[in-house]
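FAQ: What does a ligand-bound record look like?

Like this one, built around adenosine-5'-triphosphate:
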Amino acid sequence: MTQARLFSGMQPSADSLQIGNYIGALMQWRDMQDAYDAFFCVVDLHAITVPQDPAELREKTRRTAAQYIAAGIEPSKSTLYVQSQVPAHAELAWILSTVTGFGEAGRMTQFKDKSQRYGSDQTSVALFTYPVLMAADILLYQANVVPVGDDQKQHVELTRNLAERFNSRFGETFTVPEPVIQSDTARIYDLQTPTSKMSKSAESQAGVLYLLDDISATAKKIMRAVTDSDGTVHYDREGKPGVANLLTIYAALTGRQIASIEDEYAGRGYGDFKKGLRDVVVSEFEPVRERALELLADPAELDRLLAANAEKAAETAEKTLSAVYDRIGLLRRG
Ligand code: ATP
Ligand code: LTN
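The answer part, i.e. the structure of the complex:
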């Protein structure tokens, strides 16, 4: 029986992934990779929608791929590759932009957030069309499922709309994908500003737990996480966002129920609770960090592996692109 397709990706927009990427996406990827024909992409063309230093971008791309593998994605089972090594992504994005409404793209909240953060001078047209490229990523592989954090749900909805629109105008071409979102851990918040989503490219790193940080930096960030003056370890997203976020992280990494963690720390202070969480996070991250650093010690081998996987991805992608070109009436080279 052929397996259903899975597609997902992350931007190489920092030296290290953060715990939100790990809990919101990577853990699902790891769990799903056996049951699906999975494509995991390092989306460098998405990363350049905001300014990147060229030498750093190359390094961040390798580092992102290494962290996928270190976190348990097996490149022998799944197709793990770099987006710009498969030109069909950019080509299909152009085609899809011709069936995307300007207003429709303008409603995407990530664009609104990021364009505000970078200001109008730094806001590129590519930042605006970013979701169209993401739709191309997914549709090229005829993906059935797209495991993401909840901030990406709107982009997957747009992808579905574009697929349906294209299919009805030009005939059945694309599989309409479903988002897969782990609802209780879909959004991890910044430890210093527990009302904002944790983000690897955040301006301040004080509230971001990076997979590749050294242990003492991670421990310090957890011990300094913003809580409240109430002193009880209790989940209340509205009233106690800091503590609720720490409980979410604790539960996600241990697979325990929040209530059982609340019980364990009942009558004990935040200090004890944070120490407990620190131990959980450090023991989860440590092997991932070690493995990632090992892989990064041999960049030539990593580059070879990525190139071989890109070749595999390109075969599937080109089939879809070719069907699309035919459907819309582009005159093909003989
Ligand atoms: P950037 O800061 O460059 O926007 P990011 O850290 O927000 O990066 P992305 O590369 O945009 O991460 O996202 C990779 C995956 O991680 C996506 O599936 C996204 O939904 C998920 N993700 C990102 N941040 C979080 C978070 N705070 N909580 C849960 N999932 C998250
Ligand atoms: N926009 C996503 C990254 C991304 C992606 C994708 C995720 C680009 N293409 C395709 C899933 C499927 C983000 O995480 N910001």
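Follow-up question: can I read anything off the structure? Yes, for example: Residues 7-11, 43, 46, 134, 137-138, 146, 148, 152, 155 surround L-tryptophanamide (ligand 2) (CB under 6 Å).
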